[in-house]
Design goal:
alpha/beta
Amino acid sequence: MNDTEIQRKVLDRIGRAMGTFSMLRSGDRVAVGVSGGKDSLCLVHALAAYRGPAPFSFEIVAVTLEQGKFTEPVGGLKERFERLGIAWILRDEPRTLALVGNGVAHGCDVCSRNRRSALYQVASELGCTALALGHTADDCAEALIRNILFNGRIAALPPVAESRKGSMRVIRPLVFVSEELTCRYVEQDDLVEIGCVCAEKEGPRKDIRAFLKQMSEDYVDVPESVTAALANVNPYSLFDSKLQKDDADISPAFV
């Protein structure tokens, strides 16, 4: 697969997500959470490219939060965004910085929750109408399995979600893009990732990722099947009584 094909595949799948879930609207100002990892770098570069074929105009601003966990300085991102013609905002995230500074042990869930909260706040301050996050199809599959195994619920990552106050949409344009594809996209554009010290932490998330990777190598179309399952829910086969419909013509026993 050459460079043009990789970019076309990513843009096609972003376009599919945009159309399927009505992610953006004309005149939107989109804050893109950029951690420096491959997925967020792919997202911001692909969204910049997507502005051309998009049927309406929208603005992009990149937002990076310093949480004290980068493996190298993030200042190098500035030149990259200048070349893209995108404003870049770098802010400290005080709650996680305090935990790191005081040597308080904490998991990725705490770090993620703090980052997400800070991104909402910064995006709101910047007058953004949407916040774009770099979760891929793999992340959605992992979230589904993690919730089933450890949280006792069937849930993943929604492609679009409204903030509690309804003033901002959270969108995930990469929900149909695999991590393998984001890796290729970053490699073909010679984008240098900035790592996180937590990336290699042992735990359920890493184990689930390894499991899905092994299944994908052993069986055909496993990632695609998981993605399809997220849009093909049969409530009659589940145990949640709130999902059952009062329909005398349909019996759960025959579904």
